[in-house]
Amino acid sequence: MDVQVKETKELVMGKPNLEVFSATLQDLAAGDQDIIVVTSDSRGSGKLVPFGQKYPKQMVEVGIVEQNLVGVAAGLASAGKKVFAVSPACFLTARALEQIKNDVAYSDNPVKLIGISAGVSYGALGTTHHSLHDYAVCRAINNLMVVAPADNVETEQSIRLAAALDRPIYIRFGKKPMPFLHAEDQTFEFGKARMITDGKDLAIIGTGETVHPALLAAQQLEAQYGIKTSVVSMHTIKPLDTELLDKLSARGCPILTVEEHMVHGGLGEACASYLFQKGCTNKFRIMGIPDEYTVTGSQVEIFDHYGISAPGITSVALDLLDGNFRMVKK
Q: Which domains, and CATH codes, for the chain?
């Protein structure tokens, strides 16, 4: 279905989440010498050059050896340090997966694993540099939280909470500037999703950088068709906010999930597994990267190709609603 998307209300743009991550770490390190950053030749791409300049004794550079990075981080965490292990998500959760599983999660070392340039952020560098598997593999490991902040507010709060967390966590960030999706005074808690809009006709659940196009699609659905949509930032993929999922499913409306990840093993399948084991009968659809050789291009071009965009999500939503919603085009 072709969808003509009208102009919608502009959101206030913020910084790339990685810049907020770095600034927050610097603020934390100013009053806590136990904050340690371990990088794999990624201080530049991780926006951590200012951190290293201010706190050189609180940064460890191991070079491009991701397994060693996680092992060193686990050792420091076992000695009481608050360790942030920073590396490109595609390599951190693939090359160092055994160390994440054994040295961090199974050994209960509270390392904060930070996957940078996640999803398809590396764009034209191609499939080898995409992290479309990280939700799936990290969800499958016991004692490992999985988080993908949607905007600058969620990013700052997730880093502050992670610094005080006494268990392992994986947090992923993309590269582009993100709009402000939430009021700064909203509360933030791991495992508790954030409702951006609340509508009874449809629920769109996004995570990370897909929440923005989901919100744009919701604005278009209301402006053009009068469809009231709940847009949810499911920033914590593990553990899921099952209380909110129960609330949404009880409305009987269709549910659409959107993620910058393979359609297998990620947000969508996590939500579907919970809901349908509970007896949910809502119409349900997963949007993400299909099980195929990924096209090459910028993040925006890849998103557009796979429909992770305002028009793409709007089109899938209309198809999902067909038959149980009377659509009157405005």
A: 13-179 (3.40.50.970), 194-321 (3.40.50.920)
